[in-house]
Amino acid sequence: MALMLLALIVWQSYVWLSDIRPQVLPGPIRIARESLESADAIWNHSLVTMSEVGAGFSISIICALTLGLLIDMSTPLRRAVYPLIIASQTVPIPVVAPLMIIWFGYDMLPKIIVVGLFTFVPIVLGFAAGLASTERPPINLMRTFGSSRWQMYRYVKIPAALPDLFTGLRIAAIYAVLGAIFGELAGAFDGLGIFLEQSRLSFRTDLVFGAIFVIALLSYLLFLLVVLIERRAIPWHFQQRES
Amino acid sequence: MLEVESVSKAYGHGAERVVALADVSLTVTEGEFVALVGPSGCGKTTLLNLVAGLDGVDAGRILVDGATPSASERLTRFGYMPQQDMLFPWRTVLENVSLGLEVLGVGKREARRRAAELFPQFGLGGFEHRRPHELSGGMKQRASFLRTYLLGRPFLLLDEPFGALDAITRAQLQSWLAETWNRIGGSALLVTHDPHEAVALSDRVYVMSPRPGRITNVLEVDLPRPRTARAAETAAAHRLIDALRRQTEAIE
User: Fold this and answer.
1) In chain B, which residues have their Cβ closer than 8 Å to the Cβ of A243?
2) For an engineered disulfide with B210, which of A198, A229, B42, B199 has Cβ 3.0 to 4.6 Å away?
3) Rounded to a whole number, what is the distance in angstroms from the first to the last CA of chain B?
4) What is Dmax (Cα atoms) for chain A?
5) Which of A144, A162, A236 sits opposite B75 (nearest CB)?
């Protein structure tokens, strides 16, 4: 906190002393003032981006949980799908985003897909690793109870996988907003990405900084939301670690 | 009644093939408490897992009350208590203890009622809604034992239940189990590496040696029943423990 404040002071002092043009580097005070001036526009664009993130992240979670369960249940499926998941991470998503626009147009869907591409893999990998981490002894104990496969997942494998799943979700949350921005930059009418691009093209560098700040803030809030849900969902995980 | 007849089991293939059990036979009659003693790696846990139905035999037969159920049929015939307490951190102690009943299809509420009733008797009263990490090592094992006992299966398979505990807690739990056994009855097969524990609890002890696992000695424990906490402190018991200790040390 103190470090951030110090950086802001140094930044502002530099802007004052060097007489640098605000189109090149605006000071924090100007950024804050101008952004507040455009608060309505930023808020409206944020709402669009947030709804893209909300829809994309939710759908991504549902798909990732389903695929995670499936690849844990079927070894052939795991062997087939795992290399694809890893390979998909080497594809530069900013390059793919324009394709989405070509295929699916300018509305919500391509952004949801790009958010999904950004967030899907860490969730699947986290969940699948968690499911695979259950060791032999608890599985054997459940077998002697006469446990069905479904009960094995319900009572042991899924609860045991939750800490790893949340690790994946936290990583995914950091990338989710970024995914929506990339989706918008490839083609959209509104959203924070569009606001950013418009500000840049009209040399409003102060608003570019404002947009970047809001994007970072949204990412941080989403991350915080995941952490809060994690604290509520698996309190036993933290209690156990403390003792 | 349990009869293990000439059972063999090997793991791995080719050069890595390890014979875990070679031609092992033993019997546990109705109401008997039988111990299986041997150094680690002698295959005693393997044998217990085969009886429990967690794995199939390569050769030989396992008879239960004269019939030969398959491994998957045996899974639900015995009350199996694992070596580690295996209490799940996401469940309270009560929810852990009632888990076996819930899996068996007893309603959640009924399962928890039945489990809660026995908490005081098992020295767990007041800890129903705590988490497992709040229990002492001894209490965890008692909770684990209660979970197995609640299944209502009259034949118990106990895999080194007190192996991970310190010496004092282990001694306390041994006498606790001896006294609990007097009350609940039934048959049991206990795996242990502790001669004292074997003599204190059982009617007969099989001694196993490793590589490949086989039974080298059988010792009848003719100490009076019901056993008290001091059963293993008598001169007769000490002679048995010494004899057993010499036999196991000769193996190691």
Assistant:
1) 133-134
2) B42
3) 31
4) 77
5) A144
- Specify whether the CB–CB gap between A72 and A131 falls below 8 A: yes
Q: What is the nearest CA distance from B223 to chain A, expressed in angstroms?
A: 32
Q: How many CB pairs under 8 A join A and B?
A: 60
Q: Do A234 and B90 touch (CB under 8 A)?
A: yes
Q: For the segment A53-105, what is each residue's pLDDT rounded down to a tens digit? A: 999 999 999 999 999 999 999 989 999 988 888 888 888 877 888 888 888 88
Q: Domain tally for chain A?
A: 1
Mean pLDDT of A24-28: 91
Count of other CB atoms within 10 angstroms of residue B179: 14
A55 burial type by CB count under 10 A (0-12 exposed, 13-18 middle, 19+ buried): middle
Lowest mean pLDDT, pick from A145-154, B112-121, B194-203: B194-203
**Chain A contact probe: residue of B45, B80, B103 with most A CBs at under 10 A:** B103
Structural domain for A54, as ranges: 29-242
CA-nearest of B219, B208, B220, B218 to B251 is B208
Q: Is residue A129 in some structural domain?
A: yes
Answer CATH for B2-78+154-251 from 3.10.410.10, 3.40.190.10, 3.20.20.240, 3.40.50.300: 3.40.50.300
Report angle CA B218, B221, B224 to the nearest 5 degrees: 165
- Asked if B86 and A138 come within 8 Å (Cβ–Cβ), the reply is yes
What number is the ipTM of this complex?
0.91
CB A207 within 8 A of CB A35: yes
Please answer yes or no on whether B49 and A234 come within 8 Å at the CB atom.
no
- CB contacts of A138 in chain B (<8 Å) are 86, 88
Q: Is residue A185 part of a domain?
A: yes
With contacts defined as CB-CB under 8 Å, which chain A residues touch B78? 144
Distances (CA, A) of B216 to A13, A43, B26, B42, B197: 87, 81, 11, 11, 19
Tell me if A83 is assigned to some domain.
yes
- CATH, residue A176: 1.10.3720.10
Task: Please indicate, yes or no, if residue A128 is contained in any of the structural domains.
Answer: yes
List the single residue in A with minimal CA-CA distance to B90. A236
